[in-house]
Inverse folding.
């Protein structure tokens, strides 16, 4: 499994967001254990943050949510809890990534933030401590740009 994790993370270094358009990437992730999925998801989020390109389309945000779902929700099958440091690192990275959700059209930007909010609310109380403040700040930032 470690080789599969490595195989999936190699394209992130050079392709970043382009990985989201690869058809077989999520299929390969389905065969991994939840812990390994979480590792790949964290590397995807860190790569997106490092690339610092805006997440401005609904399709991109939807694909990204699909890829990083192990960071956004607990493993329902195994019931495993990740350790505190890994959990905090993952949630902080998701919050940093959330600041990249922008669009010049306020209506589109609002819908993107709402998509993220719906997913964040399903993540549980432990995650909401991290994710809801970033939603509030994203909405406040959006309200400043309204005319």
């Amino acid at each position: 499994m470690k080789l599969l994790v490595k195989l999936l993370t190699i394209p992130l270094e050079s392709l970043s967001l382009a990985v989201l358009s690869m058809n077989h990437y999520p299929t390969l992730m389905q065969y991994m254990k939840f812990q390994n999925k979480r590792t790949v998801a964290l590397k995807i989020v860190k790569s997106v943050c490092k690339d610092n390109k805006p997440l401005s389309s609904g399709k991109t945000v939807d694909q990204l949510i699909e890829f990083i779902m192990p960071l956004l929700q607990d493993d329902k099958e195994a019931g495993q809890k990740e350790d505190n440091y890994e959990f905090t690192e993952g949630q902080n990275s998701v919050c940093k990534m959330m600041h990249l959700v922008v669009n010049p059209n306020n209506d589109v930007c609002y819908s993107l933030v709402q998509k993220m909010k719906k997913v964040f609310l399903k993540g549980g109380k432990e995650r909401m401590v991290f994710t809801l403040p970033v939603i509030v700040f994203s909405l406040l930032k959006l309200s400043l740009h309204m005319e």
User: Anything to note?
Assistant: The first helix runs from residue 2 to 15. The chain has one domain: 2-144.
